[in-house]
Amino acid sequence: MKKSLILFCLVVCCLTGCGDGGGRQVCVDDGDPKGPACLRRVDSAAEFEVISLEARLFEYSDRVTKYTAPAGKDPELLPLVFQNVNRYEIHLYFLALVFAEYFPDLNEEKYMEMILTRANRKHYAGNFVHVDHPVEGEFYGFTVYTASRNEELLEAEEVLAIYEMISEEFLAGKLVYTFDPYDAMAPAKARTWDDPGFDIYFLD
């Protein structure tokens, strides 16, 4: 193979996500006018806009999408992806339809087991929002879905691991940990942390 052709193939793989996910292609751009089903990396506000919807999750937030991240080092787990909610708004359907080989026969029960509880968790997931705050400025916040029980609330070390994982692939702006508006337990837990290693945005 000529050197120019090899270089071309490498460039295409970098742009479409080749080589991630245990050798399986992840977040390949299929030419859909709404953009790829997901992105492995977000380098700019423009890229975030492609995969997000105008929506107000809470005050001062104006765009939202979702993410999925592996809860462990197993190379067979789906790697970190940022979901294009313009194509797949429901997270369960996104995983089941786009990543059927990772999640065969995924249903609501299996989804909740692998996302919400520590004992069975294979992946973390949550909302991912853009916020333009009049005092704190512009930033992006991620939430983490968990079961609403005290024993399932995340520890600071667990959130830090998620934060560091996302930070490596999300370069569009400042990243913080935040909360869904219906979640009263996680913010209360987070207020007990002393210097967790990441910024936190409380909704109140």
Description:
It is a single chain. The chain is an alpha+beta fold and 204 residues long. Helix content is 28%, strand content 18%. The protein has helices at 3-16, 45-51, 91-98, 108-116, 156-169, 185-190; strands at 38-39, 53-54, 61-70, 81-83, 123-133, 137-142, 175-177. The longest helix is centred in the first third of the chain and has 14 residues, at 3-16. It starts with a helix and ends in a 14-residue tail after the last helix.
What are its keywords?
204 residues, alpha+beta, seven-stranded mixed β-sheet, 6 helices, globular
How would you describe the shape?
Answer: globular
Number of strands: 7
Terminal Cα span: 60 Å
Could you state the order of secondary-structure elements as H and E? HEHEEEHHEEHEH
Structural class by secondary-structure content: alpha+beta
Q: Can you count the helices?
A: 6
Tell me the fraction of residues in β-strands, as a range: 15-25%
Biggest beta-sheet profile: 7 strands, mixed
List the helices and strands and how they pair.
Layout lengths: L2 H14 L21 E2 L5 H7 L1 E2 L6 E10 L10 E3 L7 H8 L9 H9 L6 E11 L3 E6 L13 H14 L5 E3 L7 H6 L14
Parallel strand pairs: 6-7
Antiparallel strand pairs: 1-4, 2-3, 3-4, 3-5, 5-6
In short:
This protein has helices at about 5-15, 45-50, 90-100, 110-115, 155-170, 185-190, and strands at about 40, 55, 60-70, 80-85, 125-135, 135-140, 175. It is α+β, with helices and mostly antiparallel strands and about 200 residues long. Strands 1, 2, 3, 4, 5, 6 and 7 form a seven-stranded mixed sheet that branches.
